[in-house]
Specification:
The complex is a heterodimer of chains A (about 170) and B (about 140). With about 170 residues, chain A is of the alpha+beta class. Helices cover about 35% and strands about 15% of the residues of chain A. Chain A has five helices and four strands, in the order αβαβββααα. Chain A has helices at about 15, 40-60, 95-105, 110-125, 160-170, and strands spanning about 25-35, 65-70, 75-80, 85-90. In chain A, strands 2-1-3-4 form a four-stranded mixed sheet, covered by helices on one side. In chain A, α2 (about 40-60) crosses α3. The longest helix of chain A is centred in the first third of the chain and has 17 residues, at about 40-60. The radius of gyration of chain A is 28 Å and the shape is elongated. Chain B is mainly beta. The longest helix of chain B is centred in the last third of the chain and has 14 residues, at about 115-130. In chain B, β4 (about 65-70) and β5 form a beta hairpin. In chain B, the strands form two sheets. Chain B has a five-stranded mixed β-barrel. A two-stranded antiparallel sheet of chain B has the order 6-7. Classes of the chains: A alpha+beta (about 170), B mainly beta (about 140). Chain B: GO terms for molecular function: rRNA binding; structural constituent of ribosome. Chain B: Belongs to the universal ribosomal protein uS17 family. Chain B: This is Small ribosomal subunit protein uS17m. Chain B: It comes from Glaucidium brasilianum (Ferruginous pygmy-owl).
Chain lengths: ~170, ~140
């Protein structure tokens, strides 16, 4: 049973997470002006169709607005936090060229991304136990070679609290 | 508790003006792309913001850039008008700097002074057809 739509691969999590344009934190708004007909706007149309979902998935806090058939020439405009505006002329450029260009001018570099990942890893300690959301493992019983969870395999008599209490009472009495 | 700037999360927004009936305030509709969790498709989600417009220069249909105010101006107004990006009916192409409408430039159109006689007769004929005659009731 195939997925519905023209290029339904765009609607898969794997495709969305493959986007490699991650904007710097100063980029707040991205505006794309393009035309629905005409060869000059072809690259822009492909960009909007294929790459914009990837960008929005990776940058959920950037506002992306699309304007169709407002001006004869297609362009991208970025509004940065310090009031600066970046105008990118997109006429006669292919989808790939546009993506490479904006990645170069406003994307986070590979080193910054790696550094951020390392910082994130430092926050969580891998050797602690707790809720799945914050720790790797919840209980010692999950690890191979340790005592299995008594919910699935009953503990041997000697480890059970009631046996230990009974033997202690017998010893004292 | 120091708040260096803006009591609101959105610092810069771009939206379309939908109402100017309030004095010195513009009602702006902002659309963001939000991912539907089941379809995994992005849809526009609207939100209205009120922006302070001291010179009342916004008209319904303008595309405007709003800037967050450092503190709230009133209960609902937390932004002010920073710039009118596209004025309705008067869009200027930022690449060339010329006025345009849709996919055409407005500069190369013939002016009314340069019309030939054939054009004027044709236009006057069309105007005659449009004249409204009073019907007897």
């Amino acid at each position: 049973m195939p997925m519905k739509g023209r290029f339904p691969v765009r609607r898969t999590l794997q495709y969305l997470s493959q986007g490699d344009v991650i904007f710097k934190s100063s980029v707040k708004v991205m505006t794309v002006n393009y035309n629905t007909a005409g060869e000059r706007s072809e690259g822009a149309r492909k960009f909007v169709f294929f790459t914009i979902p990837q960008i929005q998935y990776k940058n959920p806090w950037v506002q992306i607005m699309l304007f169709r058939n407002m001006t004869p020439s297609p362009f991208l405009r970025f509004y940065l936090d310090n009031g600066e505006q970046v105008l990118v002329d997109v006429e006669e450029k292919t989808n790939k060229e546009i993506t490479e260009h904006i990645k170069k001018i406003l994307g986070k570099s590979q080193e910054t991304l790696e550094k951020e990942e390392r910082e994130k890893k430092k926050l969580s300690h891998p050797a602690t136990f707790g809720h799945k959301k914050y720790h790797l493992r919840e209980c010692m019983c999950e690890i191979e070679g340790q005592v299995p969870c008594p919910a699935f395999v009953p503990l041997p008599k000697e480890m059970r609290g009631k046996y230990k209490a009974a033997t202690k009472n017998e010893a004292s009495a | 508790m120091s708040v260096p700037r803006a009591a609101v999360h959105a610092k810069w927004i771009v939206g379309k003006v939908i109402g100017t009936k309030m004095q010195k305030t513009a009602k702006v509709r902002v659309t963001r792309l939000v991912l539907d969790p089941y379809l995994l498709k992005f849809f526009n989600k609207r939100k209205t913001y009120f922006a302070h417009d001291p010179l009342q220069q916004c008209v319904v249909g303008d595309i405007v850039l709003l800037k967050a105010l450092p503190e709230r101006r009133s209960k609902h107004v937390k932004h002010e008008l920073a710039e009118i990006v596209f004025k309705v009916g008067n869009v200027i192409d930022p690449i060339t700097g010329k006025p345009c409408a849709g996919t055409r430039f407005l500069e190369n159109l013939p002016d009314s002074e340069n019309l030939t006689e054939a054009d004027t007769t044709y236009l006057s004929e069309k105007l005659q057809e449009l004249k409204v005659c009073s019907t007897d009731k």
